[in-house]
Known about the structure:
It is a single chain. By secondary structure, the protein is an alpha+beta fold. It has helices at residues 11-19, 27-38, 88-111, 121-140; strands at residues 44-45, 56-58, 63-68, 115-120. A four-stranded mixed beta sheet has the order 1-2-3-4, sandwiched between helices. α2 (27-38) runs parallel beside α4 (121-140). The longest helix is centred in the last third of the chain and has 24 residues, at 88-111. It is globular. The mean pLDDT is 89.
Amino acid sequence: MIPLPYDIFDPQKRSEIMSHIRSKNTxxxxxxxxxxxxxxxxxxxxxxxxxxxxxxxxxxxKYVVFVHGCFWHAHQDCKYYRDPKTNPGYWIPKIQRNVERxxxxxxxxxxxxxxxxxxWECEIKKDAEGRLNDxxxxxRSL
Length: 142
């Protein structure tokens, strides 16, 4: 039996592919921002002064929103998350560090008095309007 290579691409091609993966202005993040803006909410984006650089910061409500990709943030029991099969020795610890960083950021924000909401990409794909209505209700409730 011939062993399978870790990756079907050479390092330069893999680097090029990975460089196209965005962390800002993803489809899910844009959907959430447009929805909130249409309802009159005003917010900041990626405030580097706050732990975790939240995707959406609503200072008036002391509320932050993270819009997470299910794969990159290991959304458990989600059809969009699976352990990587290619180079798992690198990717599984990398994704685990993302999860740990997320948990630390949420804890620090809550300690500072911020309310935190995480919107998962699968929730937007499944029922965007319902999920976003829940988000708005949560923001407005004090």
